[in-house]
């Protein structure tokens, strides 16, 4: 019996951006879209072109290679033709593959929020979808407040969905916008809508988590017949968040109740990357990963000493509903030091570093990683630093250069015009091929000055780093007080389009920054020689 296909739609960069405290930069959006595309998501919704400069710039280019690149926006305004609506034009003119339109499907909202009529709203839906289809882009319609609308006026909510489907929408997405619907309600309404003539393979579900049931509601909708599931990385989103794709995807792929009937685009090998994806995203947000997150949390497969640990050592199936390796996580049994070895071997193999489980150097690498993570390092979000550490432990890294010393000065003073200025200056001494090079630079802050000085004169290697750019810089304080330990995560890129992350940890923020900067340069030089970057550069 053939399995039915479930399509995965990510709205992290659009709906997820409505999370309080989250505001993606252009570089952030490029990085996240790349992560999602490489992972194998079917649709990546990038934002609202025309609504703000960041989203407009983001949609100036196509940002995905495999996933459908989706622009989000409103249907045309009432009283304006589709061809003359500037908002709709911005969507169609963007470099998106698909356009996801949003429309009211609750007659109460049509009257109160839009100050319009039910008929005009249906007209806007029909003409907007037709305009997208005629442009050659794939059309989707988010039926906002669909379940509340259906409970209030089932005929009108159904009419909104039907109008979009008849106009040529590939997907009609049913939104639980307020997040208050219950799984049983979701399933019943979906079944009724399918019975009314809108096929399930043209229906999607967009659930919010205001009752903690976004994942459950999404699965209920799948069970009832929808074949597209929308959500975000780690469940971010407005108010209480959206359906968490990091939880939904393994459930669909690994639990026999679903896996025996449904399939996604993700292979078993790709599924093993989901823990790294989740943690890398949290690092980008500058926050700690949730330790008790299903499948990917540090405690998801952790067991303390006692009867549970004893049973785990005999047979992991006693307390594990799936294997940790299947999602790229690892078992933590407090009475054993063997946990995670196979995960390390797999992670190294994906980077072209082959090592056997009985190699004592592997034990040493695991020991170093555990020691460093205990002091604050986080390698899930710093692929390049982990790869360099592996090369240094298991083999060697060429001695490209040696940092003799560095000094950073920050001076706050009044300039000749009487204006208060803060000036940062860095001095770096580097030994290259037996010759000492000293560089001095000013910058916008001490880290910028240090970065400029360090890359100012690298001797014979200077030309090799000409296209190296520091794309992002994040700082996290790991404990309180003025003597706190600081973790610095740096994202770098080069002319090939490759992006990589490096990490530094110290009780001195400048020293932590320097560690990450140095790793970034060394990684670039290794990558230039095909000695590194087999994962990060893909």
Describe this structure in words.
It is a single chain. This protein has 19 helices and 18 strands. With 538 residues, the chain is an alpha/beta fold. It has two domains: 4-266, Aldolase class I (TIM Barrel, Alpha-Beta Barrel), CATH 3.20.20; 402-528, 2-Layer Sandwich (Double Stranded RNA Binding Domain), CATH 3.30.160. Strands 2-3-4-5-6-7-8-9 form an eight-stranded parallel beta barrel, surrounded by six helices. Strands 13-14-15 form a three-stranded antiparallel beta sheet, covered by helices on one side. The radius of gyration is 26 Å and the shape is globular. The relative contact order is 0.07.
Fill in the keyword field for this structure.
538 residues, alpha/beta, TIM Barrel, Double Stranded RNA Binding Domain, 2 domains, eight-stranded parallel beta barrel, 19 helices
How would the blueprint of this fold be written?
Layout: E1 4-5, E2 7-10, H1 26-39, E3 43-47, H2 53-58, E4 68-74, H3 86-93, E5 98-104, H4 107-112, H5 118-134, E6 138-144, H6 146-152, H7 154-166, E7 171-176, H8 183-195, E8 203-207, H9 214-224, E9 228-231, H10 245-254, H11 256-259, E10 262-263, H12 268-271, H13 274-284, E11 302-303, H14 307-314, E12 332-333, H15 341-349, H16 360-375, H17 383-394, E13 402-414, E14 420-432, E15 435-443, H18 446-454, E16 469-477, E17 486-493, E18 499-506, H19 509-528
Parallel strand pairs: 1-10, 2-3, 2-9, 3-4, 4-5, 5-6, 6-7, 7-8, 8-9, 11-12
Antiparallel strand pairs: 13-14, 14-15, 16-17, 17-18
Helix pairs in contact: 1-13, 5-7, 6-7, 8-9, 16-17, 18-19
